[in-house]
Specification:
The chain is mainly β. Helix content is about 15%, strand content about 40%. Strands 2, 3, 4, 5, 6, 7 and 8 form a seven-stranded mixed β-sheet that branches. A two-stranded antiparallel ribbon has the order 1-9. A hairpin with a 2-residue loop joins strand 4 and strand 5. It is elongated and about 80 Å long.
């Protein structure tokens, strides 16, 4: 999402945009939709505070069964950028905000990387198609009540402990 600085009036404003994220860095994530964004922008001089609500749909691979499934994603990201004459500041102290370098000569700020980072870090490291996913079906798998004989010693120890 690119914010064109001259188009943002002083005070509060709202911008809606559709963002296509072209990234090959994360092979397990495929964007099925563009990212819909609604940005609330508060401008005071050369300081901008942007709060973006986003939504999209991703295709992820289940960590158990390895099938692909659709995962809707929604969230918020907050960004602050500020410029002062002759220098650019990104060392603002608010922990809840992402800070982005703002070059006043370019007249625009691309906040797509902050949006990408928020979406990717919000995903599970081991995504599941459902909590009850049994995993892959193994051909030739036998359901049996037999216990591996290597566990017999532990079974005897458990029985001895329970009988006391």
């Amino acid at each position: 999402m690119i914010i064109h600085i001259p188009d943002i009036p002083e005070g509060h404003s709202v911008r809606n945009a559709s963002v296509k994220i072209n990234v090959d860095e994360v092979a397990e994530v495929h964007w099925l939709d563009i990212v819909q964004c609604s940005a609330e922008i508060d401008r005071v001089g050369n300081r901008f505070q942007v709060r973006i609500a986003f939504s999209s749909t991703l295709e992820l691979q289940c960590s158990r069964c390895l099938n692909y499934f659709k995962q809707p994603v929604t969230g918020m990201v907050s960004v602050v950028f500020e410029s002062r004459e002759g220098q650019t500041f990104t060392n603002l102290s608010e922990d809840e905000y992402c800070t982005i370098e703002y070059n006043p000569e370019r007249q625009e700020v691309d906040i797509t990387p902050a949006l990408f980072d928020e979406i990717i870090t919000g995903l599970s490291m081991k995504p599941l198609c459902s909590q009850s996913c049994p995993g892959p079906e193994i051909e030739g798998k036998k359901e049996t009540d037999e216990i591996d004989p290597r566990w017999n010693q532990l079974k005897k120890l458990k029985e001895k402990y329970n009988s006391q």
